Amino acid sequence: MRVMPPEEKHMHKSNTQLLEGETVRATEKIQQPKSRKHSYIAALLGTVLHSYDHSLYGFMAPLLVPLFLPDVEVATAFVLAYGLYPLKALFGPLGAFYVGRLGDRYGRKRALQFAMLGMALVTLTMGLLPTYAAVGLAAPILLALLRCLMSFFGAAEYNGGAVYCLEHSDYKHQGLMSGVYCAASVSGILLASVICTAVAYLPAAYWRVPFLLSCTTAWVSFYLRRHAEESPDYAASEFQHEPFWALTKRYKSEILSGLGVSAFFSALYMLPAVFFIAYIPMVTGLSTATAMSINTVTLLLYLMLLPVGGFLADRWGVRRSMGLATAATLIFAVPLFKLLQINTLTAVFLVKGLFSVLGAWFIGPFHTFLHRLFRPQERYTLASLCYSIGAKGGSAMPAAGILLWQYTQCVWAPAWLLVFWAILALFGIFGPKRA
Questions:
Q1: How many Å apart are CA 114 and CA 120, to the nearest integer?
Q2: pLDDT single digits (tens) 206-248
Q3: What is the CATH number of the domain that holds 70?
Q4: Gap between the Cα atoms of 363 and 361, Å rounded
């Protein structure tokens, strides 16, 4: 039988007892297995749809640009299309704050229903949008607005679903559940890739199909959540009407920790999933098609390893496991990038495969770490904001990495960005008192 480390005993206490001298909570509500299974299905299906919708715009951009910006030069059109990300960076935290406060005040179930309903309506509207040929400049403006609204609802959906899942889980299995939740998110990305690839071979009019399909499945998820149980942690706690600035003051160290760890989470994910698709053809003799094929294989490996990363955290302790994964990334980041100089298919597979292992090791228990930083009364809001804001820093990895390589012409130069985020993550992992 494993002895619980002192750090985990403190985290366990913070999940079952109000902090700062407050009284012990009422006995936790124990759910029947069937009810808990229904809650898991509702949350996991929600994150599959969130990741599907989140990836859909990027995958569909080559098909959407000719329909919504036909009179603009192709390169400029893509810059405009991807230029929506700054707006997305604004709307995401707004959604995380607004829906997060709903989740802390009125319950996880209601907040997640609201987020899923919003996503369903946005994707339905996207699928019904008129193109430039029908309404002119209004078409790309409407598309941009809907993309921002998708970011608003999606930011609260992803972390809210993780909070809901983990609050239904036993403490000793929360790492594994976090890994399963992350794997469900990756499966949504793969689903979007498969469907968008299939649509690319069909006539242009079929561009609406992925959006309408997402809307249909979103209604199914909304129905499941409507009949799911409220989380035990929320049911046993009371919302405290504190101003947001008071919360940021109380949880200053925890918020800084969550921001740093979220940034490294995003950088580790973006590295194999996005960055290498563009980078490998630049520094090796491999084609873009080959790089994308390798990406699909290693993404499947990453998906399968995420629950393993969560399981290891349950066995070793969340902070210890994530700290080891971060230290391993610090040690191997530069040598792995140097392997790309060998310029062979085997070397590229090895580099992407090992980065997938490091990513799954760290990211698997990520939501458990974030979950344990905050009390149930403020957890939905603060966890969602930490991820929504912090991940924006790590998501700059692809663009910053390519610019760094262009400036230095050094194949391992982008690795130093990963080293930078890893150092911040180590301070975040071992810094806060409650995590």
A1: 10
A2: 888 888 888 777 777 777 777 778 888 888 877 667 788 888 8
A3: 1.20.1250.20
A4: 6
Domain end among 237, 264, 298? 237
Q: Do 195 and 108 share a structural domain?
A: yes
Alpha carbon 230 to chain centroid, angstroms:
23
Q: Is 435 inside any structural domain?
A: yes
Same domain, 249 and 202: no
Looking up tokens 């979220």, which residue turns up?
262
Number of domains present in the structure of the chain: 2
pLDDT lower than 70: segments of the chain = 1-36, 58, 71-88, 239-240, 272-273, 432-435
Q: What is the dihedral of CA 201, 206, 212, 214, to 10 degrees?
A: 10
Distances (CA, A) of 329 to 193, 395, 424: 28, 17, 13
Name the β-bridge partners of 24: 17
Predicted TM-score of the model (pTM): 0.83
Domain boundary among 184, 213, 237: 237
**Looking at residue 8, what is its pLDDT?**
46
Say which residues have a Cβ less than 8 Å from residue 401's Cβ, sequence separation at least 6: 275, 279, 413, 414, 417
Give the residue from 342, 226, 361, 358 showing the smallest Cα distance to 284.
342
Tokens 């698997």 -> residue: 364
Domain that holds residue 269: 245-435
